[in-house]
Amino acid sequence: MTGIICGTGSYVPPYSMDNNDIAKLVETSDEWIRERTGVVRRHIIEEETTVSMAAEAGRLALADAGVDAKDVDLILVSTISSNVILPCAACEVQKILGADHATCFDLNAACTGFLLGYNTAVAYLESGVYQTALVIGSESLSNLTNWSDRGTCILFGDGAGAAVIRAGEGRHYLPVTHSNGAKGEALTCKSRHDHNGLTRKLEPENMAASEYSMQMDGQAVFKFAVRSVPQAVEEVLEKNQVAQEDISCYILHQANRRIVEAVAKRLGEPIEKFPMNLQEYGNTSSASIPILLDELNRDGKLEKGRKIVMAGFGAGLSWGASILEWK
Ligand code: COA
């Protein structure tokens, strides 16, 4: 018994900003951003929210799977940017979709979030606790972005992706997951709610927007990614006794084209095995893997029975890789 992805969906806001639009906000250029990151444009919410995008991606994934919302046992939303704290985004999605029988909770593991959500759902399915799970990554990173910091605002975008996973017959693969909280300062976003007015007061000078937006040591994160992702991929292949040549494609978190290229090089794999869409969406954190998965699925690029590696990495620090067989 294992978990099998039987449907995918995604939602990306129609409003987009290209690099020239960003160059009107900060001192940068289309050429610099393309060269250093591969990003050309990113989509930004207008009326949408993290919850509304999650629900739409989830609805499309259920339709693709041919699964009724009432048959979903588990809804798991991975997000760092929900527009609601209580109730959790997953419960809000449940309400919108009418998935009355589902158990719902959120998961915060930044850009590794969808991978950990997938692993969590598969563990529940394999142990027989649930039969059908809807795993969603949804982010409104534009709300957490410091739009006057050229080191970060060029990178991120908004969107949501989802997968329906069902218990079924197939090989069980063990995932590889790691965290290193000691290195967490490399990518942070402080709470907007860390003063209660009773015992903790924030001085006005400490309330600058930059303090409450994402802050990143870009080079540290870059080095971490190019070192840890190939290691995690090699570890997961070794752990499951799967050869690299049996992997049809590697679906990496879409942070930066240079990171993806460096991972391909370190693994000695052709770049063609690493599909990318970061040029269109930027880094959408936990939404990036399921959005890409959905695009590949809808374009008919995932062959039945072929093995795929998914790999995520990001704030925490956290990272990992999983093997799955396409439906
Ligand atoms: N436009 C123009 N110049 C910029 C710039 C921008 N948007 N951002 C930074 N610069 C400048 C810097 O100020 C610096 O100038 P200086 O040499 O005069 O001081 C120079 O470019 C080099 O800066 P540096 O930070 O070393 O650039 P970099 O090559 O490391 O690229 C990132 C910056 C952010 C693109 C890169 O570090 C990166 O992609 N890191 C990983 C980030 C990531 O993926 N995070 C999410 C992981 S989940």
TrEMBL record:
Catalytic center residues: 111, 253, 283
Domain Beta-ketoacyl-[acyl-carrier-protein] synthase III N-terminal: 105-172
Pathway given in the UniProt record: Lipid metabolism; fatty acid biosynthesis
Principal subcellular localisation of the protein: cytoplasm
Domain of life: Bacteria
Subcellular location, record wording: Cytoplasm
Stored Gene3D superfamilies: 3.40.47.10
Any one GO BP annotation for this protein: fatty acid biosynthetic process
GO cellular component terms listed in the entry, alphabetical order: cytoplasm
Assigned EC number: 2.3.1.180
Domain Beta-ketoacyl-[acyl-carrier-protein] synthase III C-terminal: 237-326
Chain residue ranges for the region called ACP-binding: 254-258
InterPro entries: ACP_syn_III_C, ACP_syn_III_N, FabH, Thiolase-like
Record's keyword terms, sorted: Acyltransferase, Cytoplasm, Fatty acid biosynthesis, Fatty acid metabolism, Lipid biosynthesis, Lipid metabolism, Multifunctional enzyme, Transferase
Reaction(s) this enzyme catalyzes, per UniProt: malonyl-[ACP] + acetyl-CoA + H(+) = 3-oxobutanoyl-[ACP] + CO2 + CoA
One function term, GO molecular function aspect: 3-oxoacyl-[acyl-carrier-protein] synthase activity
Domain remark in the UniProt entry: The last Arg residue of the ACP-binding site is essential for the weak association between ACP/AcpP and FabH.
General function of this protein: Catalyzes the condensation reaction of fatty acid synthesis by the addition to an acyl acceptor of two carbons from malonyl-ACP. Catalyzes the first condensation reaction which initiates fatty acid synthesis and may therefore play a role in governing the total rate of fatty acid production. Possesses both acetoacetyl-ACP synthase and acetyl transacylase activities. Its substrate specificity determines the biosynthesis of branched-chain and/or straight-chain of fatty acids.
Assigned protein family: Belongs to the thiolase-like superfamily. FabH family.
Subunit structure: Homodimer.
Entry protein name: Beta-ketoacyl-[acyl-carrier-protein] synthase III
Origin species: Merdimonas faecis
